[in-house]
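Field guide to reading this record: the first block holds the primary sequence, the second block holds the structure written as discrete tokens, and the final block holds curator observations. Each block starts with its own label. This record concerns Thymidine kinase, catalogued under organism Anisodus tanguticus.

BLOCK 1 — SEQUENCE
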Amino acid sequence: MFTLSRMKSLLFPVLSRPNTIPLSSCFHFQEPILVYKRYGVLVSTFKNPSYSKIINPMSKVCSFRCCTVQNHSQVRVLHSSGSGEVHVIVGPMFAGKTTTLLKRIKSERSNGRSVAIIKSDKDTRYGSDSIVSHDGDRLPCWPLANLSSFKQRCGSEAYSKLEVIGIDEAQFFEDLYDFCTEVADHDGKIVIVAGLDGDYLRRSFGSVLDVIPIADTVTKLTAQCELCGNRASFTLRKTEETRTELIAGAEVYMPVCRKHYVSGQVVKEATRSVLESQKVECNSIL
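BLOCK 2 — STRUCTURE
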């Protein structure tokens, strides 16, 4: 059961965000102004309609400079519904996907946004309730079997205050596409997805690639090939295990470039053929 202190640690500023000045108290009404709640304030004047200025979107309302408009009817507030975002981070293993996700989440939190992180409960390598990068950076998270249970687990009040949701190891969530469309399109939240785009055979892994058509941005990260040091875009499995979902680290996987991925597969195929032929010979002798 999640306690109140536990909820605070998971949702960060959701329950402790500083109060801000009401939006209407920031304006004198002598010039037209367009107010966009999420991304800031667009100011234009009658004297020079082509002039506009975007106020820092990371600023809180209380830090906006006072602007003037002619009358109250010229202030339009664009509501957040339908104004969410989806950002996808993909790449092979050891490319820094989790590190990048953590940096993005920390940046959003430091800018005053309420955040939460979800990861698959299948990944217990560094503990069940933390998201941890390979270099040891970590943040608390929600370990879930599926994304559809998040709203209920989080609670309607806490969920309504959330602004940014990070998803790590996204390839393990079958309902990833449905969750992202609902959260971004209908709930107006920012979703940052990090996961493998391909498996050890360079085939589509899970539903990560399905989210790209609805994404605002897609970041493809690369690692360093362990065999030559060049850019690595692929993950080579060192063992003969053929299961697609095999959660492990450097003892099983390594990032490789295209050349060494192909040659590595050739070596594995040759080794497999030799082992199979030896097995046949042994059986024939017996």
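BLOCK 3 — OBSERVATIONS
The mean pLDDT is 74.
The radius of gyration is 24 Å.
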